[in-house]
Design brief:
The protein is of the alpha+beta class and 138 residues long. The protein is built from 3 helices and 6 strands; from the N terminus they run E-E-E-H-E-H-H-E-E. The protein has one domain: Glutaredoxin, CATH 3.40.30. The chain starts with 9 loop residues before the first strand and ends in a 13-residue tail after the last strand.
Amino acid sequence: MMKLHEIELISSRMGMVDFNGFYDQPIVIFTSASLCDFTKQFKNFQKLFEDKKIVPIALPTNNFGDGEPGNNIEIHQYYSRYFDITFPIADKTNLDHNFFKMFGRPNWNFNKYLFNKKHEFIKQFNADTEPFDLIKYV
């Protein structure tokens, strides 16, 4: 079974994302973009994080519709200012990242990759899947 610990994600705000810091918690990593219609999902991702149901980690990409044009600092500021995000935000990446090679290529922004409490990969979900719908899989 593929595990999340086999991948490195960097966050300019946090350094290396330490998955061990979320021991015994399910994690969802999702492709994000500031200029996407699916940003309304940020609110529910934040609620899942605050309620300690699932740890969301945003993985910004600019591969779909130029929806993430900013640099890492601009992205962090934008997510924090407009969506009150306190969960981890990885640095902006592209579809060549090892994460996508291991767990599947997304087809749009806000594709979700769900991992169980042992951080084993469960399933990839498309952008239409609402964050709260992921709870039934963990």
